[in-house]
Hints:
CATH superfamily of chain A: Response regulator
CATH class of the largest domain in chain B: Alpha Beta
Shape of chain B: globular
Bound molecules: S-adenosylmethionine, magnesium ion
Radius of gyration of chain B: 20 Å
Structural class of chain B: alpha/beta
Oligomer: heterodimer
CATH superfamily of the largest domain in chain B: Vaccinia Virus protein VP39
Amino acid sequence: MNILIVDDSKAIYAMVSKMLEEGGHTALWAEDGLRAIEIIKSNKSKIDVILLDWNMPNMNGPEFLEYNIKEKITSSPIVMMTTENSPDAIKKALSLNAAEYIMKPFTSDILFNKLSLIEMML
Amino acid sequence: MIREEVYKFFADYIYKNTGMVYASSDYYRLDSRINELVKFFSLSSPDELYSLYKKEITLDMRAILINISTNNETYFFRDVKPFTTLAKKIMPEIMTLNPNEEIKMWSAASSTGQEAYSMLMCLKNSLEDSAFSKMSVEGSDVSTKALDKAKAGIYSGLEVQRGLPAQLLVKFFQQLEPEKWQIDLSIQKKAKFYEFNLLTGLFPSDKFHVIFCRNILIYQDKENKIKILNNLSKSLRKGGVLILGSGESLVGLETNLQSCMYDDFTTYKKI
Ligand SMILES: C[S@@+](CC[C@H](N)C(=O)[O-])C[C@H]1O[C@@H](n2cnc3c(N)ncnc32)[C@H](O)[C@@H]1O
Ligand SMILES: [Mg+2]
């Protein structure tokens, strides 16, 4: 799958993209929500899944989810991937149409497990 | 260095007590386990451990050895299909056949409880409250350590992310601490966990409507597989369903169970 990682941490991007590539996926990077919007709007090849951080400058994860509800820029499943790990944070993200939720820290088997849950929904 | 004689002693004991086969070509898989025991008993070598166990094996020493030698790997909704098939196909059929009856299920190698709790979560999600109130699951295992965790129903952040959709996490778990999630009482009170050895235990007759016995038979030799399967069959009620692990089947084994397909998912039924 073609997967967009939206995260202000380059280290996280490096780690997750390596996991994804080992699983046969390709990864793109956006450092915040605004950049993600640009990439989604300009990208010709379809993005299958978006991995979305919560805390980022300019436009954070929940703001991106709200923006997408209003502007419908993508119908690809969005998976939160964040250190925010309270039930309220998870409920909030799900209510803003996040399809799944990954709490950091996680392992590659969890990442792939969540992606396969997403694929079953597609 | 662990001597052949020491390996053989522990491999034989584990085989006699759990049926798990450590063939001599696989003895290296006992290394970390034996070394862990050496450390646990503050000894200095596997030979000392061997002398200790050769002298006497108390109940505690037995439990410690079994806890350490079992592979308790499990996760929520493992393989998905067994659970969706249970909730959507098998349970409606069983409820029609047994109207108003208590429905008894068994997670016969429950490890730390994820399998039993997954059965209950998907049933709670798909059944009316009045129907769900008639459901219960018994979970059993030889590992007392795994059972303690199952009973507590408390899992780490990593464990609740293995297999469990986020929707179900927030629906059925309370966060006690950042890294501790506890299964909801409405699910937990429907599950009972106890020690039961599938090789040596006394199996109840005609008790269960559904048995999950998954990812344990793969560790057993043919003779023990047949013995366990026939005992599970005895414990099933007529029309009851047995579900095995994804790599396990009855092919080549003599039993009185009949394979029964739900779409492309294979189960075994007591006719
Ligand atoms: C790999 S786990 C499988 C857990 C779960 N059924 C699943 O599929 O995810 C296997 C479990 O079988 C248990 N076990 C091994 N030998 C056993 C025996 N003779 N009787 C009962 N349980 C046994 C182990 O302690 C371990 O917890
Ligand atoms: Mg961040």
